[in-house]
C-alpha cells in the first residue's frame, strides 16, 4: 500500500524541517513522488485543504503560523524547538471539539491494545513511554492494585547547546526531565466510572510529576465534573483517538514534585519500572560522548509507536478498535 496524502505531507514536512507553505509541501510531494493525485486539476489545493485538516483535527504532529493576507506556514511539532522564537510568537488556537468516532460497541478490543496508540501520541509530543506490566510485580496482594500505572513516560528538557545542558545538570539534574504516569481505560460513560477511574489515576500517579487518565471513549456530559476533579487533584485527561496523532489533552495535568519513597517501592516490586528508572538514570548522567547511543537505547527500550496513520489504521483494524470516521472518509480504509 502506498502513502496516504497525509503521510506524504508528513514526510515532506519532515524533509523541509522549517515553516513552509502548502505550495512548497506540494512541490516536495511531487519531487519525491510520494503520492499520486490521479489527474486532479488543482492538487496543490488538495494539499492546502489537507494541511488545514491537520489543524482542525488537532493532529499533534503539525502546527501552523499565521502570515499576512490570511495565509499560513506549516511545520512539524518535533522541530518547534529549532525554529526561531520570533517566528513562533503567534500560533493559532485550534478547536477542542473531538472528531466523531464510528458508532458501535467497543467490546471487541482489549484495553492493553490502546497502549500503542497512546505511545504514538506521546512520542509526537516529545514523551517516551513504557508499559508497566502489573502481572510481573512481586506484590500480589489486592492492596497493591492501585499503585501501578498502566504506562509511564519521560520528557526531556530540550536545550540546544552542550554548555547549557551541562550547566543545568550541574545545578539540578531533576530539572532536565519530567516523569509522567498514565492510567488507561476503554471508556468512561457514567459519573460512577469517572470517579472510580479518576481516583485510581490519583493513586497510581502519586509519585510522578504529572498524572493522566486516558480513555478511548468519553461521555461529554461528564466534562464539567472532570474539570472540577482536574482543578482539585491535578490529574489530566487525554481522549485517545484511533488516529493517535489526533488524540486530545482535554485537561492538562498539574505539576508536582517526585515522590522518591513511592518510586523506590515501585522499583522493588516491579522489574519493568525498575529497568525504566535504570535506563533514565544512565541517560541523564552520561558523558556527552555517549548521549546519542544511550538515547537510542532508551528509545528502543520504551514502547514502540506508529510513524504514520496508515500503520495505526491497519493496527486498529487488526485489534477491532473502531476507526475515527475521518479516517474512513479520507479513504485510509
Automatic annotation (TrEMBL):
- The HTH HARE-type domain extends over 3-79
> One of this protein's GO BP terms?
regulation of DNA-templated transcription
Q: Which keywords accompany this UniProt record?
A: Transcription
Q: Spell out the protein name for this chain.
A: HTH HARE-type domain-containing protein
What is the organism field in this record?
A: Chitinophaga arvensicola
